[in-house]
Amino acid sequence: MSAESSQKGPLRRFAARISAIFLFIYRTLFLISILLGMVLAWLIWSGGPSVQVEDNVGLVIAPTGALVEKVEADPFQQALSQWAGEPPAQTAISDVVDAFDRAREDDRIPFVVLKLDELGSAGIAAIDEIARAARRFRDAGKKVYVWADSLTQPQYGLAAQADEIALDPFGAVWIEGYSVYPNYFADLFGKIGVDIEVFRVGEFKSAVEPFIRNDMSDAARRANAAWLEVLWNGYLQRASHVREDVASAVPELLSALPERIEAADGDIAAMVQDAGIVDRLETLGAFRSRMGETVGMDEDGHGSFRQIHFRHYLQATRERAGADPAAPEVRLVTVQGMIVDGRGEPGTAGGDRIAETLNAARRDDKVRAVVLRIDSPGGSVLASERIRRAVVALQDAGKPVVASMATQAASGGYWIAMDADAIYAYDATITGSIGVFGLWMSVSDALEKVGIGSDGVGTTPVAGALRPDRPLGEDMARVLQSGVEHAYGRFIAGVATGREMPEAAVERVAQGRVWSGQQALERGLVDALGGLREAADRAAELAGLEADHYRLTPPSAPRPGVFSMLQHLSGGILSLADTFGAQALLAGWARDALPGSDAAALLAAWPADPAGRYALCECRVTAGGLPASQGALPGPR
Questions:
Q1: In this predicted model, what pLDDT tens digit does every residue of 124-149 receive, in sequence order?
Q2: Domain 58-175+240-316 in CATH: superfamily?
Q3: Which one of the listed residues 205, 206, 380, 404 is annotated catalytic?
Q4: SS3 state at 307
């Protein structure tokens, strides 16, 4: 045997062993993936282990993250987070309302405890719907309690619906009102050589101002001040449903906050109790003992009162709460987030996806009417028009459509509602903003700064005219401006037709101006003030159904199977490649450089409209330091 052959033997054996090891690891990981996929699929299908509701227990309603119209988290990620013990990043408003309503008629539940420390944001629609559910619960002779170590403004908006608010003696309540303070980037773009070309129609279309100004215009300042005042008054009104003095006590406290806190020797808890904002100061242990006087103390060693978490309660009462399957159906279709072209990502409203959902309702013989629930600042004109056309197709098929505006239904959010048979809004819903703008970004100056130029030839005057590495010429600017003006004209005409108003009257309330729901009602842009239930009853009435004999049902979503779980497990690795794409880099830069604004959302999704035309409202407000619009269960104890 040659020396070469003797060397190949051990090398081959070594290579074979390495291959066997890698094959073993691969097969093991594959089997683990299958098992994990089966577990996660079971968690999603079944909701987890079965739960029993014991007699005489307190119901703990503990929303986490953002209160939203519809939870849009990836089901795989949602199940994985639950398995890891992380609280959900979103809570559906309907889950909280359902928990109140089911417990109202459940003799096993004597009271509800609202636990709000992990609630991040709650818009006016969430506060209004939950306030109504709490009122129905209290009307049944049952109590709602809150204990907190501190309360932000969104949290207090819900806490105020309780019969009693107990605050830790070292706690605090922070209420500051509403504000709009966008960041402005004109100087930034100038310094880095990015040229933002904006085309708009409407004196008050302030969504574009962050791109072209360094401060708020006088027109935007006047318009924002008007609807913010209505929003603030609506918050105070909701907070005073149970505590009548809160509507006056909070403004009085804020008007002299330094003096009031100094008079209380810096004791914030005592100050808010004296103002009537909370009812008592109490430690958590004392609160638990007091609740235990009604339901008894838990024997599992937690040292708290006997209780059940609302997510477990919903799971346990799912069959009891089922609606009559034979009742006619009113389909609930939710439009949540910025309206974008295509199907859209979670957190956005894809025009194609929403239109497909509406078309499915049109073809479904069981569906008699549709409620279009809108919580959106608008977005792409093209995507908004696709949704509007699907609404009209439903009406042509004899199925009425009622729009129910949530916290905001502005610009494109109003575009999709304007043909509805009826439009309902809350008094403080942010709506209107009837206007259109176009956006184009050129980075030619930025490229020149680093020594990159662009030059060449084209077969027509417009060939290559819309390249972002070239300056936008005057001719193309005229083209884009004309397109924006055409879209605005269609918007005005559409509102005039849908709302049966003269175009001149629509023009007076348009120009991109934002209105509250109450102001929109006074100007004919909405038909009535009311929440989801009122809108659903109206849809049923228009369809000839009895108000108490119909089902309000969301579209059915396919449950992901094991192979879908495996696809999610492996797909995450492939998605890392996207982080090197230009669009992902732009989105990342927008999130970091322009935090918390719809301008950032627009750049992150750019181009969200193929023609570069947007019906988008920059109407994101701040409430108590937080945006007011986003596993194992969190410990309710």
A1: 899 999 999 999 999 999 999 999 99
A2: 2-enoyl-CoA Hydratase; Chain A, domain 1 (3.90.226.10)
A3: 205
A4: strand
